[in-house]
Amino acid sequence: MANEPINLYDYEARAQLALPHDTWDFIDAGAMDEFTTKRNRSAFDQLTLRPRFMRSVEERKISTTMLGEDLSFPVFVCPAGSHGVAHPDAEVATARAAGRSNTLMMLSTASNCSMEEVAEAATGPLWFQLYHRGAALTEMLVHRAEEAGFKAIVLTVDTPVPSPKERDLRNQFERKLELGNFRDLGLARNEISGTDDTPGWDVSRADPLTWKDLEWLRGLTSLPLVLKGVRIAEDAKIAADMGVEGILVSTHGGRQLDQTMGAIEMIPEIVDAVKGHCEVYLDSGVRRGSDVLKALSMGVKAVGIGRPLFWGLATDGEDGVHNILELLREEVGRVMDFCGQSDVANLDSGLLNIPNNWGRGTVSA
């Protein structure tokens, strides 16, 4: 149809027009100066592809797996709170869209729909993202997720304290939608919220989980454990040594800690540190199929999208999210063809040109 969005940025522009100003700022904003949010994109853009031609690409394979769960292409739905700010069907619409695209969805603790409602609507694999809110609530959430059919627990580790997004403070923005996973429990909002659910970030600080608490968390469930927000080699090595099954390298979209490298810049040292003992995924800043291929060529298993989910929901609900995923699928296939690659699980070395000093951080011996 004429005037249909043809890339994710088209959806972004339409969503900004469709949403109230303060809601748009909540979705779009990063922490403080928003340096990391911007760097997530600029770091991708500094990497360039080295295409290979005169190769047969008719048998191209872009399907993959995440801890044994089948994905039709290496893009999954990131955990993000309050899809209801963009569409009344909220996470149920997102789950249906992910299922139509035959990919995996991670559901946020801070979802507006309950995990059971999402599980009922989903046709693809589901993982549950966990904000630790104290032992009792964590135990309740983990047990419910396993009973509802979720296939992994994704523990967010990069939110030791709340981090105000200054745009939200200026707007005095408050998410007023209910948190479906805590419906009818009678708990105060600051006891159940994640990182930016309440005005002024009035979040009750439960004792944070530390490395020594991972065994306790593992004891609650037989599900595999993924750590979301690991950013440096030192922590990645600890996680791998402790038997964590996956690491989701993420800057939280730059929404928590500012002044860090972009997520893609952290991948080389983390992949090297885990030495194949756990799977590595990435989110933060993915907007094009070429971004997906860049991450995969560095050893990432699959990449996730966050903000674009809200753009799709605000523009066209379930169909919008599905179309965003399908646009990325088409772009992944096209860039694979241009680079002469036939299998996302077996990419040629030397696919990327990495500038000198790109992503150079300090890594302990």
Percentage of residues in helical conformation: 25-40%
Rounded to the nearest angstrom, the distance between the terminal CA atoms is: 56 Å
Average pLDDT figure: 93
Globally, the shape reads globular
Strand content: 5-15%
Count the beta strands. 12
User: What is the CATH fold-level name?
Assistant: TIM Barrel
Summarize the helix and strand pattern as letters: HHHEEEEHEHEHEHHHEHEHEHEHE
Biggest β-sheet strands, sense, barrel: 8 strands, parallel
How large is the radius of gyration?
19 Å
Low-confidence stretches: none
Number of helices: 13
Strand order of the largest sheet: 4-11-10-9-8-7-6-5
- How many structural domains are formed by the residues? 1
Give the structural class: alpha/beta
The CATH superfamily is known as Aldolase class I
| CATH architectural arrangement | Alpha-Beta Barrel
Entry summary:
This protein has helices at 8-18, 21-28, 35-46, 90-100, 115-121, 135-148, 166-171, 189-192, 214-218, 233-241, 263-274, 289-297, 307-338; strands at residues 48-49, 64-66, 69-71, 75-77, 105-107, 126-130, 153-156, 225-228, 246-249, 279-282, 302-305, 352-353.
Question: What does this molecule look like?
Answer:
With 365 residues, the chain is an alpha/beta fold. It has a single domain, classed as TIM Barrel (Alpha-Beta Barrel). It is 38% helix and 11% strand. The chain is built from 13 helices and 12 strands. The chain has helices spanning 8-18, 21-28, 35-46, 90-100, 115-121, 135-148, 166-171, 189-192, 214-218, 233-241, 263-274, 289-297, 307-338, and strands spanning 48-49, 64-66, 69-71, 75-77, 105-107, 126-130, 153-156, 225-228, 246-249, 279-282, 302-305, 352-353. The strands form 3 sheets. Strands 4-11-10-9-8-7-6-5 form an 8-stranded parallel β-sheet. Strands 1-12 form a two-stranded antiparallel sheet. Helix 12 links the parallel strand 10 and strand 11 (302-305). The mean pLDDT is 93.
